[in-house]
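User: I'm new to structure prediction. If I give you an amino acid sequence, what do you actually give back? Let's try with this one:
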Amino acid sequence: MTDNNTRVLRWSFWIVLVGFLAWDFARSPAIDLRQEPPLIAAGSGQVVDGGHCSSAK
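Assistant: Good question. You get back a string of structure tokens that encode the predicted 3D arrangement of the chain. For your 57 residues, that looks like this:
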């Protein structure tokens, strides 16, 4: 009995997870890689925006 419950819970988890990822992918706008800030801008001359350490006041 517990083996069957574990199997149902495992399959339910994966179905919900895949369903959520499919919904999120379908609803989110496409990523424009040219407008994304660089993750690491060391030596490129660009300033990284975002993150707590790059906020200059």
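You can read the tokens as a compact description of the fold. Here is one thing that stands out. The chain has a mean pLDDT of 79.
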